[in-house]
Amino acid sequence: MSAAGRHLPQLLGEARRWFEEALLDALARAGAEPVSPTQAAVFAALDEDGTTVSELARRMGVTRQTTHQAVHGLITLGLLEQSPDPASARRRLIRRTPSGERAHEQAVRTLARLEEVLAERIGPDQVAALRAALEAEWGDPPVV
């Protein structure tokens, strides 16, 4: 099937995988702890002050069980930690450890470089237009 024949969600998924594969490869070559794509997504969805597993799952669009497994793998690697939520005794917040913060900063730098590479390949105007379209308010999903 030609690129013109693919649905937009397929194209967006391929674009996400392009960034994801390049990011994980760059981090591995730099000596970072290897993480799965789901574990990398946890980092992207995490708030600075911490986030519950339920909220991470919602943001990532995956089950709580999947998120819980990813989080605990990152805790085992020393990149995340759990702590009580001061607002609720029943909830626990997931936060980056100092090692996790360094890994996150390295990932942010790598993603910025990947955007530069993309601009070199498809043009800075195309990247700016893509960013503008994705940052625009789309509203609630329609009923069709």
Task: Please provide a written account of the structure.
- By secondary structure, the chain is mainly alpha-helical.
- It has a single domain (10-134), classed as Winged helix-like DNA-binding domain superfamily/Winged helix DNA-binding domain (Arc Repressor Mutant, subunit A), CATH 1.10.10.
- The protein is 62% helix and 10% strand.
- The chain has helices at residues 8-29, 37-45, 53-60, 64-76, 98-122, 124-135; strands at residues 80-85, 88-96.
- The chain has a two-stranded antiparallel sheet with strand order 1-2.
- A hairpin with a 2-residue loop joins strand 1 and strand 2 (88-96).
- The chain starts with 7 loop residues before the first helix and ends in a 9-residue tail after the last helix.
Brief characterization of the structure:
This protein is mostly helical and 144 residues long. The protein is built from 6 helices and 2 strands, in the order H-H-H-H-E-E-H-H. It has a two-stranded antiparallel sheet.
| Averaged pLDDT | 93
CATH superfamily: Winged helix-like DNA-binding domain superfamily/Winged helix DNA-binding domain
The CATH topology is given as Arc Repressor Mutant, subunit A
Task: Please tell me how large the radius of gyration is.
Answer: 17 Å
Task: Describe the global form.
Answer: globular
β-strand percent reads 5-15%
Q: Biggest sheet: strands, sense, closure?
A: 2 strands, antiparallel
- Terminal CA distance reads 25 Å
Uncertain spans: none
Looking at the overall shape, the CATH architecture is Orthogonal Bundle
Count of DSSP strands = 2
Quickly name the level 1 CATH class: Mainly Alpha
- The helix tally amounts to 6
Helical fraction: 55-70%
SSE order: HHHHEEHH
Structural class: mainly alpha
